[in-house]
Structure formats: C-alpha cells, structure tokens
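ARCHIVE CARD
SHELF: 3
SLOT: left
DATA:
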Amino acid sequence: MANEGVSEPIIEPINTGRRRFLTATTAVVGAVGAGFAAVPFIKSWNPSARAKLAGAPVTADISALAEGQRLIMEWRGQPIWIVRRSKATLQVLPTLDSRLRDPKSQNPDQQPAYVLKGNPEYRSIKPDVSVLVGLCTHLGCSPEMKAEIRPEPFDPEWKGGYFCPCHKSRFDMSGRVFQGVPAPTNLAVPPHHYENDNTIVIGVDPSQSGNAGAA
C-alpha cells in the first residue's frame, strides 16, 4: 500500500506530460507579459515516426525563433527543447554557480564536450541558443519553463529556468540543477550541430556531420 501511495502521483504527471508532448508535435512556447502563452507553430522538418524510434536525426528550423521562445521537438521518444535565451539570461548564468550542484557540468554523461567550450555556464554551441532534453533527471517528468527573472513561490531569488512540478526540482536556463533538490544531475544536452545559422540537426555531433565549421 505504501508503494501505491507514492507511485501514483509520480507516474501520472509523467504519463500526462508525455501524452501532451506526443500529441503536440512541434510547438513554440513564448513569454507574453507576465506569463507564457502558445504562439504560432514554427515549421520544422521531421522524419517518419518509425525513423524517430530508430533514433534518426531530427532537423529544426530556428529562423523564426524569437528571444525568450522555446521550440519543442521529439527525438528518440524524448522532448527536445530549443530555447533562444535573452542577454539578461546569459548575464545572470555565471552568478548562479554557488547555488548549483554541478555548475561546470563535470558529469560527462549529461552533455557532449563541445558544448562546454568557451563558456561552460552556457552548455551550448552558440551562447543564445540552448538545446536540452526536456526530461527531469529525477524521475522523468517534463519540467515547466519559467524563463522570467522574477521571484517565484518556489524560489524568491529566481533568475529564470525550469521547475519540475512533480517533486520541485529546479534547473537554470542552461539546464544546470540546483542544490537541495531530488534531481541528481543536470538536464541532458543531446548531440547536435548547426547545418547553417538557422538549422540545427539533433542526433549528430559536429565531428560526424561533415560540416564541423557550422558548429
């Protein structure tokens, strides 16, 4: 009975989140005023469902992705978040290190090494564009994006990031996990590269793309 009481609230949010994600295909969520609202869909080129399950690369067109917006895609059955971060967000990221469990992303399992070149706080190939697997590293719920720098009920010193409603894990806008939360590691960064300035290929490292210069 004790296990049933614990498992039900854990499993239901995960399943509900996955259903919402899998039926939404590719959507953009942006900041509007004090909150977030759906904005027009951004086109992307996706392989067939069978190819996705096999792990085929997924290509994203980010030409219309505005500052503060998130593009949600699917790769290997996982939600992939592509976010164009603001200058204010980039400026605040280095100030959060003392509050984070792994601020320099020293766990090599959570990201490819090339996203740590330059500024490891960004965890990205290009400073303003973040690419993350949108699953909490605790039990796989999909965290909510709360990108605005403002006090939140769960953190009066919130500087923008992701909040997991299942068990209150928190991550910054680079997917780095805060101290004192259930999630043990940073959000994962999938392998990816830039085919050109506005096209990201998820699932292929720059060294494998034949277009390493676009990284």
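SLOT: right
DATA:
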Amino acid sequence: MERAALLDINGQIFAEQGRALNAVASRDVKVIIVGNPCNTNALISLKNAPDLPAKYFHALTRLDENRAKCQLALKAGVFYDKVSNVTIWGNHSTTQVPDFLNAKINGRPVRKVIKDTKWLEEDFTKTVQMRGGVLIEKCGRSSAASTTVSIVDAIRSLITPTSEGDWFSSGVFTTKNPYGIAEDIVFSMPCRSKGNGDYELVTDVTISDFLWERIKKSEAELLAKKKCVAHLTGEGNALCDIPEDTMLPGEM
C-alpha cells in the first residue's frame, strides 16, 4: 500500500474519533493515541476536536522509552528501575531519538556508567529504533503485551506525581515548546506531571549537536507527514512526498 493511502485510511478513523470526542467527551478528557502512525494520528484527532485542549492528546512513545531503559540496564548490569531520565524525542518511527545524554543510572549520568561511546551512539540507538521489527521477526507478531504495559505506564505517569528530578516521554503538541522544535506537530518530548492528569515540559535538559541533528530529522519526517494529512486537519489539500520508509514494522 502506498504511504499516502495508508495515512489517509488510518487518518480518517482518527479524524472521526476526534470529532466524536469533541462532541461528547469531558472537556478535561485525556487521550492516548496508540494506532500507528500514532504521532500523525494524534495530530489528526486533536485538529478534529477544536473544543478540547490540544495538550491533552498524547501519542504513545512510552513503549520506546521502556525499551531504551531495558537496553541501558542490560548494558550496565543493573535492574530496569535503576534507569531514569530517559527521553524519546520525535516520532514513533525509525527516526525516533532515544536520548542517553540526559539519562541516568543509579542517579549518575549514563556516560559515566557506560563509557562505550560507540555503543551508545550506534548500537543503543539502532536497537531501540528497530526493536519492534526484531520481535516480529522472532515471534511472528508484534509485542502486544509490551504495548499494553506501556499504555498502563503512560497513564500512571499522568496520574501519579513524577519523582523529583525525573521525567517521562510522551508525544505531545509542540506549540510553545522550549526546545525550538517546529510548532503544530505532535512530537515526543520529556514531561513531568503533578499527578492530576496534566503535565509540563521539562526545561533542564541538555541537547547536544548529536541529538539535535537527529531530532531535526524526526521533525522533518513529521512535518512531511503533516502535509500528507492536510485534508484531514482542515489545512487544505494533501501533498505527500516521503521518500524514505521509516514506518515501524507492523505499521502496515
């Protein structure tokens, strides 16, 4: 199936869901979009729900965060719960950017615990980006159980106060973000919550040239996909030109 057709078919579903939420949902509803491509589908949904706060729509990137934490824990020889401050930047696709620069293990910067820079910049990043495909190839199906756990984790992070100094990842609306990421898209960024279902973006993060180069690539992908679904967001005719296949395995 052509990318434009896939985006259109999936997008129509989420446009309808957005209109339904706009018509009958609580004005304080919180929405987590899981269906892929989830960042773009979240954008479509929120654009079709103009009476609801755009910031209350989330694209699920917690699965990617959980995978990143597991890889760091395995490499460092520690339990998963010793890893904190992990961010997934960008799109839930192979352009996602798992951030080891700001991550911590037992409260220490990852780079002081794992000193293998090549592994962090190459193997770690690629493993997290491609983990879904590896599981499908091995098991013959997508990781439904892991996805379910990540949905629960994402909800828990919104209704439980974030631990002091920590944060979690979620694909959220970028308008007025503090990082310089393009506005009016849904982009995974680091968030904190007071436990009331709301969140704020984390400002005390370091973005190196290494991270920024990759963040901009994911941003470009999302901007291109936004043009593909312009007819579903009320922004004119669709214009789809995405030369590189970055869909995660199972998205078809």
